Amino acid sequence: MELKVSGITKSYRRGRNKEVRAVDDVSLEIATGELVSVNGPSGCGKTTLLLMAGGLMRPDGGEVLLGGRDLYSLSPEERDRERALRVGFVFQQFYLVPYLTVFENIVVPAAGSGRWSPDLGERALELIYRLNLGHRSDHKPGELSTGERQRVALARALVNKPGVLFADEPTGNLDDENAKIVLNHISGYARNGGAVLLVTHDRRIGDSAHRSFRMKEGKFLS
Amino acid sequence: MTVKNNNFSKRAGIRTIIGSELRHRKFGFVSGVLSLLIATAGFVAAMILLRGDELATERLLMEKERELRAEMAQLEDDYRIIMRNMGYNVLILNSDQSIPELERNGYATTFIDYDDVWVLAESGINTLNHLLPVLQQKIYWEEQGAEVFLSGIRGQVPVYAKPAHLTDDFEYRSPIMERVPDGKADLGEEVAASLNLRPGDKITIRGESFEVNRVYPRRGNRDDLTVWIPLARAQSILGREGQISGILALECVCATEELGQVSREVAAILPHTQVFEFSSLIAARADVRQRASRLHEEILYAEMAHQAELRTEKERLASVLIAVLMVAASVWIFVLIMNNVRERKHEIGILRAIGFRRHQVLRIFLGKSAMMGLVASVAGCLAGIAAGVLFSAPGAGGVGLVSGYVLIAGLLLAPLLSVTGGLLPSVIAANQDPADILNEQ
Predict the structure, then answer these.
(1) Which pLDDT belongs to residue A126?
(2) Domain count, chain B
(3) Which of A17, B233, B316, B387 is 20 to 30 Å apart from B35, CA to CA?
């Protein structure tokens, strides 16, 4: 199992005495080659679940096993490294670095993971062509369309060949055509042996997933 | 198809991020560099100006010392002349001469041989500098119908123990008393005024002809009633060939201040003589010399103290200004980097999410601060040197005023200030929780 989430919970404090349970005893397993989607309305805890599963937010309870390793038993540095090597993220807002070119944005995880190699450069170019960004490789994010930006973000997430891809509303800002392109690539990644956890409030995306969960008020609906 | 900027590697990654971001946000970079440049340039220029000022002060003090030494030499010369005009320090007389009688008459009534002065001069005595044989009598000047002191002089007899004072012709380099040329007579002011005599007038003294050589200004003493003529003519007029009243001797203050020693040495050479000491004059002379010397030192020390005080004030002002510039530059860097951290919040979030560690984020922001510092250090040093050389005093030394220490300190200052100012914001950036940032969407 590439990702195993067991009984994780997370609460936020709102105001002085009010505590909101964003994720409540959620468990989930994703095998290699599997695309799992989590649907639900805004504020139901999808993003919190994704951040905890991706090693970015320590849960209040439960555990997250990534490739068999308990992420939150690792030191922060080890967790950073594990994330750099095994995880890719795609967000609705893209979060591209505005002053780097398309190519540089795609290979920037190499600087973090220390895994730069000529092969990685070749793989970045391959992704650029595959995502139809060849004519944009030297452009800055500000010069790209919204769809192109999300494709760059997707290429960045995939360049390290992560074990698990976490996608948070990856089509939220895209038109139908671009949403389709992005979803096709995410599905293709899963078909080629990757594991994907995709959270969205768009029910249509569920059709592309191998398994879908509905989430409400921090819990999976059965 | 190729990619132009395919230079992104593990090693170059952070440098590329820093360099690209600096080019992307030029205003922040330029304003940061400017603030550091001003601080660095201010420091370097102030150091150069202070150094130039120090050298100018040294030159001024040396000049002042030279002037004071010249004034001191002039003063000593004046004292020497004054001492001559006041009378002589030591009078060597016949041992039979009654001192009360001498003081009563104003001249000696006994005599010694003229050769005695040569015996003394050749004896090797070194407590005396100037030996002046003199024959002096009060006479009634029949041709003019007046009483005057007739004084026969020949100038100084060379003291061979003091060759430094003598020319190759055994003449004194700075004679204490000028000779009266042959056939001439010098007159005291009272004599000339009462007898209506002027330089060039022909006079006769007891049948001997003379021409008035000069009239001395009024001195307010017996000299005003004196007529000076060459010694040999006086001996002839007074019927005292080969004789003199005594030897006027001026003791050298450099050799000794002890009066008794002069007496003992003279008595050992000329046993038939006695020494009449004008001790108060000698002591006064020494005192005057010492006072003048002290005054000279006091003036110099006062000037040095004044210059030192001025320099301290300038240094204090410069250090306050430099400190203000440094603090302002550091605060400005803090504000700039803090603003940069806020602006790049999402960038930090995603970099941390995709595996950048805290120290790597810290390096990105500190690297940016250091870049500003490095650029500002070189530019600031150049600007500071230019300003320092331009505004330093003319002839202060130009680029030679720039010391290696100032240059090294100037080059280190800007990076130090920028890293100091950027440290806290960089630490804040490195410690931001990526989950908090990414969860905002």
Answers:
(1) 92
(2) 2
(3) B316
